[in-house]
Protein: Glutamine--fructose-6-phosphate aminotransferase [isomerizing]
Amino acid sequence: EKGGYEHFMLKEIHEQPEAVKTTITPRIVNGMPDLSECGLTDDMLKSFRKIFIVACGTAMHAGLVGKYVIEKLARIEVTVDIASEFRYRDPIIGKDDLVIVISQSGETADTKAALHLAKDRGAKVLGIVNVKGSSIARESDMVLYTHAGPEISVASTKAFAVQMSVMYLLAFKLAYVRGTIDETECKRLTGVLASIPNEIEKAMACDEKCKFIGSKLVISPSLLYIGRGLDYALSMEGSLKLKEISYIHSESYAAGELKHGTISLIEEGVPVICVATQSELLEKTISNVSEVKARGAYTIVVGKEGSGIEDKEDKDKNTKLIDDLITVPNLEDIIMPMVTIVPLQLLAYYTTVSKGFDVDKPRNLAKSVTVE
Ligand code: M6R
Structure:
């Protein structure tokens, strides 16, 4: 049942190329994104005032990627909320808004409550759900299924990849319909997404490196993830993955926010995992790496292959800035989360294996959180 893998989590990480392919292929027609199956019309896409994305845990992180990509391409405002906060914060939503609820299981209690609130206020609700016929799928006004197949491991991996892939399709479609990108650009971006399953496969080449780093992380009581922009969203997901299965405390920080408090945690040997795939922000992020390195951090960087990142040096000391570098395929910035997620998942996986914990069934957690 584990298909030759030692754990479901590893099997599911490796299923990501296929899961993404199955999710996006039927939704690409003549090179363009096609989401008409759920009843989302061009008129609707043109008229939404605002978009709210509501979810929990990993699904919420897919929403953060969605926000970034939708705002960047379609220039419409997107707010991302944790469902348990959204449902009690009296959000300003109404009939002109689109509320997207993202859930692998389709049964998460808080996400379901958020859906009910959105419907009561007259907003249109689009569910992005993996489990067919689940409550959230049934109760949403429109549903786009992700086709990851059953996800057994409590730590969500392939569900995240497919949720992101739907976010991309939606962003491209919204941008095209709202006139912020033309047909040529929409086709080009859709083509880039269509080639992503192959790139995810290539990203798996970091396996050995992640295993090696994972075996070193086991002695750490705590570590930090940092990143900017899309890399920040990914670092949040990396941190969640690590803490839920390895029981190592970690937190994710926007790299530029370090100086406002968190950098005081850095002392000799504290691991800092820096996600640095966004070209425009690279120099800024690298300067944050040198700041933590100067205070003794063990620096691990996830960056683009061949981006020159491997040669970054600590200018003052003339020593390498990066203790361990993990490279992923060098694609355009906006699509990088689709491949960057792989090493973050593998780092969490191998650290946990090295610790000897139950990877697929971490303590205190359930696969589906059906109570508040
Ligand atoms: O089934 P859902 O996508 O609604 O679940 C949401 C979260 O409970 C879930 O993503 C959780 O954070 C995972 N264990 C993370 O790996």
Notes: Residues 34 and 318 are 52 Å apart (CA to CA). Residues 56-59, 103-105, 108, 111, 154-156, 240, 244, 368-369 surround 5-amino-5-deoxy-1-O-phosphono-D-mannitol (CB under 6 Å).
